[in-house]
Amino acid sequence: MNVFFGLFLFLIPIFLLLVRRGRSSQSLPPGSFGIPFIGQSLSLLWAMRANTAERWLEERVQKYGPISKLRLFGKPTVFIFGQAANKFVFTSDSSMISNQQVQSVRMILGDRNLLELSGEDHKRVRDSLVSFLKPESLKQYVGKMDGEIRKHLEMHWEGKQKVTVLPLMKRLTFDIICSLLFGLERGARRDDFVKYFQEMIDGMWSVPVNLPLTRYNRSLRASAVVGEMVIDLIHEKRVEFEQKGASSHQDLITCLLSIRGKDNTQVLSENEIVHNVMLVMVAGHDTSSVLITFIVRLLANNPTVFENILR
């Protein structure tokens, strides 16, 4: 009798927990969290590698509707689709919805980047980054970009019967980033940046398991190296700006260092400059290189369009 009574007392908390979970799950959207911690991360990554991510998303909408739950990169996630969802995301204030990236992105880029901030902090950092794009600054950037493109074509395209465009566009994009963000000339230092930057972004969209030999672990270590390299550049640019009178428009780091508040103190902390420089590096790299690759493909497949543009 005592055995059954003890077993009864043991099962009551489990029963109540299951009932509570069942009730709370009724308010959640349809779908499944999948395998603990991993969830649907691997299937999404495989779809992205196979260039079928759009089909993956469409199949999810067909199966569960415009709102569903899943688990991505270790976190419970709600997937929403459609015009109403877009309006909700982009018009809600920070009291309803806030920026937060998956753990792998946050750990690699840092917690003071623009995607992680909200409210006044978000506005302060956003306004600082936008100041880099003033009309008087853009005039200088066009000249720098033109020089990088001419040098790139001379080194990698002239005299070649065949070129593989995407890898070259990634290198060109990174060379332009080094020039505009850091004022960094060609050489061993820029080559080191390319090496560690590529390792860093390779693990951004991976399952955040920080174990030796995993892609995420390599990405974290590369991120630390890139961060130290950016800090060294910040110290150099601060000396150039404060002691040698360098122009505040010469690169992004100098521009951010030059921004002062009403009490003449620096608006952004060193960590904020590092994290947001790394964010701009990542945001501008793949998007630009892929876009330019598609433009080259369009011109190669449409000789008439190419001739009209050339003329």
UniProtKB/TrEMBL annotation:
A Pfam family assignment: p450
Signal sequence residues: 1-24
Keyword Chloroplast: no
Keywords carried by this UniProt record: Iron, Metal-binding, Oxidoreductase, Signal
Listed Gene3D superfamilies: Cytochrome P450
Molecular function (Gene Ontology), one example: iron ion binding
GO biological process assignments: sterol metabolic process
InterPro entries, sorted: Cyt_P450, Cyt_P450_E_grp-I, Cyt_P450_sf
Keyword check for Signal: yes
Protein name: Cytochrome P450
